[in-house]
Write a structure and sequence with these properties.
367 residues, alpha+beta, 2 domains, nine-stranded antiparallel β-sheet, 11 helices, 27% helix, disordered C terminus
């Protein structure tokens, strides 16, 4: 049985600021293999494509997987059989589809769950957060406390990420690739189809695979001459900002529970498959760092295993009391009213003020 006090030094005000992992990675083909980073849409003076930032020293940094994307890859862990006992399983039935809250991009602040019978429960939980009590939110959506959440459509309650992970590649060489599609037969030359007489018809032929289609100079991945690294942080200083009101025993139980979930997520090795052309594994030739970082900047080796974390999380969850799992229906009528600002839950004063001023809604908290 795990000792619930074993990590209490992480919860003290004079404890470490964070746990940090720096993990060298490489493509499965080898350190000189080609990998495909994430691509992003154009906007804000960004041309779109790979996010590659140069610095004054000439070494560039390429974002391979963002903090939001990493969170969305790790969080569904808690729906797996081995871990599902740690949290309430909240599922929303939307038509023929069932969506676990763990798969909702904005977690407890997502429109999917907001437009269900849980709407009022979640708003009350967010209001409790604003009043200094994160306990009600931990009973229904505890991973929102681990990976961060922003109730940007209503109360404006915002909780920081306790666990954050990002993958970057360094000093990359950008490649391009070209391709040529050849149809199975010459549909036009063989008189199987008429010669296209306008651009719209020719585009339709190309889209449906009836003519040759060249594709030149598209994104071809990168080679990371400076290596690839996953940087992950468990912000203990942020975790210590969680309270269950002024009740110290409840606050301790809450913090232990969230710490257990955070350690479980933090020590779990996420899948190496990020996207087509980007399958990464640990680089055994480079040292992996796992340390406690003290407020003084001193770094001490950490030795917590995933098994240790899971055992502790299980005991902490029992002591806190995991919330009730439930399946609810997405309410189409509620969603229509929500779009019009006529939802069953009255908007908070700050939200009413923005509407009265004709302000645009806040940007969502992606990931």
């Amino acid at each position: 049985m795990s000792d619930l006090k074993q990590f209490d030094h992480y919860l003290r005000s004079d404890g470490p600021a964070a746990l940090v992992v720096r993990e060298p990675l490489m493509p499965v083909e080898g350190t000189d293999g080609v990998l495909f980073p994430a691509t992003f849409a154009a906007g804000d003076n960004f041309a779109g494509g790979y996010n590659i930032d140069p610095n004054s020293g000439g070494i560039n940094v390429c974002l391979v997987d963002s903090v939001g994307s990493q969170a969305n890859r790790i969080e569904p862990l808690f729906a797996e059989e081995k871990y599902k006992h740690l949290i309430p399983q909240i599922v929303v039935k939307a038509g023929d589809k069932e969506v676990n809250l763990l798969d909702a991009g904005h977690r407890a602040g997502d429109a999917l769950v907001r437009c269900s019978s849980l709407q009022k429960t979640l708003q009350d939980a967010f209001k409790s957060v604003l009043n200094g009590d994160a306990g009600p939110l931990a009973k229904i959506a505890p991973t929102s406390l681990v990976f961060g959440v922003w109730d940007s459509r209503d109360t404006q309650a915002k909780l920081p990420r306790i666990v954050a992970s990002t993958i970057r590649a360094y000093n990359v060489r950008k490649l391009t690739r070209s391709a040529q599609f050849n149809p199975a037969t010459e549909f036009v030359n063989d008189k199987l189809l008429d010669e296209p007489t306008d651009k719209a018809t020719k585009d339709a032929y190309a889209e449906r695979g009836f003519i040759h289609v060249p594709a030149s100079g598209s994104h071809g991945g990168v080679i990371a001459d400076g290596g690839i690294r996953r940087d992950a942080t468990l912000g203990l200083a942020a975790l210590r900002l969680l309270f269950a009101g002024k009740d110290e025993p409840k606050t301790l139980a809450l913090r232990r529970y969230i710490l257990g979930l955070a350690l479980t997520a933090f020590t779990h090795n996420p899948s190496g498959y990020l996207r087509q052309g980007c399958l990464l594994v640990v680089n055994p030739a480079e040292p992996r760092e796992f340390v406690e970082v003290l407020p003084t900047g001193e770094r001490k080796p950490a030795t917590i295993t995933h098994a240790d974390a899971l055992q502790y999380a299980t005991e902490a969850a029992k002591a806190f009391g995991v919330g009730e799992s439930q399946t609810v229906e997405f309410d189409r009528d509620r969603a229509k009213r929500d779009v019009k600002g006529e939802s069953d839950v009255r908007p908070t004063a700050s939200r009413r003020g923005r509407r009265a001023a004709g302000a645009q809604p806040e940007a969502p908290n992606a990931g």
